[in-house]
Amino acid sequence: MEPDSGKKKKARRHEDADKRKALLLGVGLDSQDGHVRITKGPNFRLVGGSRDTHEQMQETAIKFNEELDRRRKRLDDISPAEFVDIIHKVK
Fold this sequence. Notes:
- The chain is α+β, with helices and mostly antiparallel strands.
- The chain has helices spanning about 5-20, 50-70, 80-90; strands at about 25-30, 40, 45-50.
- A three-stranded mixed sheet has the order 1-3-2, covered by helices on one side.
- A hairpin with a 2-residue loop joins strand 2 (about 40) and strand 3 (about 45-50).
- The radius of gyration is 18 Å and the shape is elongated.
């Protein structure tokens, strides 16, 4: 058995990092009705929340994607500062 030099593990982690995709994640914590709400869309996943909270997260995520489209950018391509700018604009 050959000793594990760790090179394969490092290479695999680097490949995984190249495959990563940015994702907007919304988590609502105010649900008290027992429903589990989950919404998946381009660039986002939304989980939990009351009906109103989940709807607000949906609206924000959709507007966020619309603004990305207007800017002709992908979520993967924007800087943290641009992310904050977009969030403030769509809220």
